[in-house]
Write a structure and sequence with these properties.
alpha/beta; DHBP synthase; 10-stranded mixed beta sheet; 33% helix
């Protein structure tokens, strides 16, 4: 796979400046980018995604120091976490500075989720554009996230002005989201940075609020869902359950769990998409053996997909 040329990056940055949409790779999943300061561009983004207007999107920046341009204040814990994990799969929710990010990107809230992605194409695009880019995952709202440029083409087609191909995403699940606006940091979404690593930096047990009010992307009870029904099973249950379903006329696909949870995260969405063929009624997904580390994020995505 050939990485985008510099002129492709510049053209994509020009599209963002003109209010268009650019799909680009990150280490987590592919994002659908729009100028975070432009209400018109954000309206287009939400329309293409089919995203509810009250559902905030993550704002991407190219450099750590740009956080001070977006946040009204940056608590000490936010600086510690940013120093430890940026660039990388961590989103920090901060109080937003007025007049920088449009209201549409935050669902009308006075907070905003910000991260610095760890992918050379994403960083080159953000540097070329110069400002913050609002970018949810580059797929229709609620469906399986894309981890390749081809996934984006299949999902969104001509609704995207430019698709930058940077190969398959290395992490494969979305960023961990931590709200640092209160006295205690709160995990709003489990993801690419395990909670164990967050505790190592903060020297505290973080609160967790990964359901309820839509305070962060990807936290609806039903999300990341393919068209086929998803059921979670253990290795011991897999074959018996598959036979039961087949006897009742269901067409079954099986999503086995790689032994390495990092590998499971990396291939999760691609394998869900591959299993979600027209001839499949039910996908039996074997949950990761270990719920610690990134395995917790894989289980979270499978549980939300299974509620679809």
């Amino acid at each position: 796979m050939t990485q985008p040329e510099r002129n492709d990056i510049e053209r994509a940055a020009d599209v963002l400046r003109a209010g268009g949409l650019v799909a680009f790779p990150t280490e987590t999943v592919y994002g659908l980018g729009a100028d975070a300061s432009s209400p018109a561009a954000l309206r287009k983004l939400y329309t293409v995604k089919g995203r509810p207007a009250d559902h905030p999107v993550i704002v991407h920046i190219g450099r750590v120091e740009q956080l001070d341009d977006i946040a009204a204040e940056v608590p000490a814990v936010a600086r510690e976490l940013a120093a430890a994990f940026w660039p990388g799969p961590l989103t920090l929710v901060v109080q937003r500075r007025a007049g920088v990010v449009a209201d549409a990107a935050t669902g009308g809230r006075d907070t905003v989720g910000v991260r610095v992605p760890d992918h050379p194409v994403a960083r080159a695009l953000l540097d070329a554009f110069g400002g913050p880019v609002a970018a949810p995952s580059a797929n229709r709202f609620g469906r399986v996230s894309p981890t390749t440029a081809e996934h984006v083409r299949v999902d969104l087609g001509a609704d995207v002005d430019v698709i930058l191909d940077g190969g398959a995403s290395d992490v494969g699940v979305e960023s961990t989201i931590v709200d640092v606006t209160g006295a205690t940091p709160v995990v709003l979404r489990v993801g690419g940075v395990p909670e164990e690593r967050l505790r190592e930096i903060t020297h505290a047990v973080l609160a967790r609020q990964t359901s309820g009010e839509v305070a962060a992307p990807g936290t609806l009870a039903v999300h990341y869902a393919p068209n086929a029904r998803v059921e979670l099973v253990t290795n011991a249950e897999r074959d018996t359950r598959a036979e039961e379903l087949r006897r009742t006329g269901h067409r079954v696909a099986i999503l086995d769990a790689p032994a390495d949870p990092h590998e499971y995260a990396r291939v999760l969405y691609a394998r869900l998409r591959a299993a979600d063929a027209p001839e499949t009624d039910v996908i039996l997904a074997v949950a990761p053996a270990d719920d610690a580390g990134i395995g917790a994020a894989v289980r979270d995505r499978l549980l939300r997909a299974a509620r679809g």
